[in-house]
Amino acid sequence: MKKIVPFVLFLALLATTVFSQSKTGAVVKFDKLVHDYGTIYQNDDGTCEFRFSNTGDEPLVLTSVRSSCGCTVPKWPKDPILPGQSANIGVSYDTKRLGNISKQITVVSNASESTIILSIKGTVIAKPSELMPEKQVNEGFTPTAN
Predict the structure, then answer these.
(1) pLDDT digits over 36-80, tens only?
(2) 32-125 in CATH: which number?
């Protein structure tokens, strides 16, 4: 019986070592999941980027990146992202619409977490009208000649 206990402990340690060395596959890690534009003016630049890395041990392949509406257009790398490499998903929001921004971008990949939701938010306001400054006129005064 005394010989069995050390043998069982040895097997448990061996199994833990073998399983800890197994592959994890592709793992995607984003720097941020939400981009906040804050308050921006109508027709301003509505682009942003979501940076991500493959922290796994197999190539990461993004199979689909789609937005919740046509006013938000994502661009993503079509080539595999090798372990340890980083890349960006670019998002362009059409800022001609006034009001609140609340859109989602769904990223589907071969990573351990196969679907990730990215979000953009903010508010688009109208640009203030540009007026020419008016010259101050003092009414009631008559220029005099000396």
Answers:
(1) 999 999 999 999 999 999 999 999 999 999 999 999 999 999 999
(2) 2.60.40.10
Report which residue type is found at 20.
S
Whether residue 103 contacts residue 86, with contact meaning beta carbons closer than 8 Å, is answered with no
Where are the extended beta strands (E) located within the chain? Answer: 28-30, 34-41, 47-54, 62-67, 72-75, 86-93, 99-109, 115-125
5-38 pLDDT tens trace: 555 445 555 454 444 455 689 999 999 999 999 9
60: which residues sit within 8 A by CB, 6+ positions away?
Answer: 26, 27, 28, 54, 80, 81, 82, 109, 110, 111
Cα separation values, 33 from 48, 72, 116, 119, 141, Å: 12, 16, 9, 6, 65
Paired with 125 in beta bridges are: 41
How far is C-alpha 114 from the geometric centre of its chain's CA atoms?
A: 16
Q: What is the reported pTM?
A: 0.72
C-alpha span between 144 and 139 (Å, rounded): 14
> Of 41, 108, 39, 96, whose CA–CA distance to 72 is shortest?
96
The domains of the chain are located at: 32-125
